[in-house]
Amino acid sequence: MTDGDFLRVSDVSKWYGDEQVLDEVSFGMDRGDVTVLIGPSGSGKSTMLRCVNRLAEAQEGSITLDGEEVLSPDTDVDELRREVGMVFQSFNLFAHLSAVGNVALGPRRVLDLSENEARERAANQLERVGLADQLDSYPAELSGGQQQRVGIARALAMEPKLMLFDEPTSALDPELIGEVLEVMRSLVDEGMTMLVVTHEMSFARAVADEVVFLDDGRVVERGPPEQLFERPENERTGRFLERIASHD
Amino acid sequence: MAGATRPRTVGERVADADASAGKALLVAAGALFWGWLVVSWVNRWLGGAIAPVGEPFVAPDAVESAFAAVPGLAAVAADAAFVVELSPVLAQGTWLTVVITGVSLVCGFFIAVPLAVARVYGRFSAWLSLGYTELLRGTPLLAQLFVLYYGLNLAASVPASLSGVFPRDVVWVAILGFTLNGAAYQAEYIRGAVESVDEGQITAGRAIGLSKIESIYYVVLPQALRYAIPSWTNEFVYLIKYSSLAGFITVPELYYRANQVATDTFRYTAVFLILGAMYLALVLTASKFMERVDARVAIPGLGANRER
């Protein structure tokens, strides 16, 4: 298959101290693509994701987003992060702000919208994730699934060209996972470009254009989900998928 | 379930009654104390519109005979009259104590917040902040006041715009001293609270494109300052009492005036008991006030166990 070049990750390597956590990782996505990163814990998936919006700094390689080099010292990281939304495993909602406050903060302070415009945009985004009735609830008053949907709305409110999901359902009780995946599916349907780290294989199978299997910081295998899940070429991929499947 | 109220146990009803009686007593005492203070101050500003400046609102003799008439209180009749006689001086001293504490606390706060942020998020500035805090916390406050007053003779260089606001310019020196010292203590309380804010909060702020300083301002501080309130109240309470050290550099605040009276009259026990009561009233007011503030700014859903 040909690599997309909307987001292109080329030979990215990263070390924490002397320990190499990413080893020449490469993949590419086109606009509107959904790429799912899978792999055992500690394989570098989350780190890879964080390198894309520079929450983690890669030492080597290149990442281009829409033709612009992300890893260049001239890159304005705040500008970059405006365009790249991120959803966290632990939600990281601003604890002191209501749902609307959480979503409106970026538009208000980063995009410089007026208070009213920001709140209106926030309300629209919360409606988009099915939380129109929880605008004034505070994070501590919401369930995990609702919190994560606020987290998604918060990222969407910046109108990003790329969304990063860092294990968005891993901290959720099983019965709350569905509502978050449903929101993510609707984003896929709307054509959002999404890079997702997840253990939800059924989600990956259903919506991914490409699945990238990382192990030990290296891309072991990548391909369309039907190929990777049904006929993994690498024996490590097969073993990992078996382990995951036995827990399902 | 909905709408049904659980009947209260006998124990709860007794506790409720006790609590409301205690609360009523405290509110009444507070109203009396602050009512008297405020009326005294207003009277002084108006040049004695209610009672001649320096004179008590009630004649000490009348109080003495009133007390003497009650069998159980006859023994303290003279002391009661003395306290009444003292009241204008106490009110005057309390004014300065309140102002010095309030101004120093607020000014100190605006130094303490940057100190705390620098300490947690700075590099070089973290060392500067640490040095400042350790120096100011590690040396006696009285020594600091002496250095400012006797050593640097700052009372002589109070700017013209500030000079004359207070009866003596040395009040400004005391405010400066308490501001600098209090900032160090406040910074420690706030630093603890800043450190307790989850790191993910700042990460999330950065992830939507806020700069580090914006993330601290919009995300970390609003949470940290809330968390800091209970421990920060300590500093408030301490400062009310520490402000008595200003008396040692001739600031005519509450302690200074009471001490003067005690030395003049040799009635140390009565004077210092009433002085203690004055400070106690101020401290209780401060802590009750901060309790209110804490409840007022509490984040919904958090700390539900503190709900009343």
TrEMBL record, chain A:
Q: Which family does it belong to?
A: Belongs to the ABC transporter superfamily.
Keywords from the UniProt entry: Amino-acid transport, ATP-binding, Cell membrane, Membrane, Nucleotide-binding, Transport
> Superkingdom, according to UniProt?
Archaea
Q: Which PROSITE patterns match?
A: ABC_TRANSPORTER_1 (PS00211), ABC_TRANSPORTER_2 (PS50893)
The record's GO CC annotations read: plasma membrane
Q: Which SMART domains match?
A: AAA
| Locations listed in the record | Cell membrane
Q: What is the recorded name of this protein?
A: ABC transporter
How does this protein sit in the membrane?
Answer: Peripheral membrane protein
Q: Which CDD domains match?
A: ABC_HisP_GlnQ
Keyword Transcription regulation in annotation? no
User: One MF term in GO for this entry?
Assistant: ATP binding
Q: Which organism is it from?
A: Halorubrum distributum JCM 9100
- Where is each ABC transporter domain found? 7-241
TrEMBL record, chain B:
* Spans traversing the lipid bilayer: 21-42, 62-84, 96-121, 141-162, 268-286
Tell me where it resides.
Cell membrane
Any one Gene Ontology MF annotation carried by this entry is:
transmembrane transporter activity
Supply the Pfam families for this chain: BPD_transp_1
Q: Name one GO biological process term.
A: amino acid transport
Q: Which GO terms describe its cellular component?
A: ATP-binding cassette (ABC) transporter complex
Query: Which residue range or ranges hold the ABC transmembrane type-1 domain?
Result: 94-284
Top-level lineage group: Archaea
The membrane-topology field of this record reads:
Multi-pass membrane protein
Q: Which UniProt keywords apply?
A: Amino-acid transport, Cell membrane, Membrane, Transmembrane, Transmembrane helix, Transport
Q: Which PANTHER family does the UniProt record give?
A: L-CYSTINE TRANSPORT SYSTEM PERMEASE PROTEIN TCYL (PTHR30614:SF0), MEMBRANE COMPONENT OF AMINO ACID ABC TRANSPORTER (PTHR30614)
Matches recorded under NCBIfam families: HEQRo_perm_3TM (TIGR01726)
Q: Which family does it belong to?
A: Belongs to the binding-protein-dependent transport system permease family.
Descriptive protein name: Polar amino acid ABC transporter permease
Q: Which organism is it from?
A: Halorubrum distributum JCM 9100
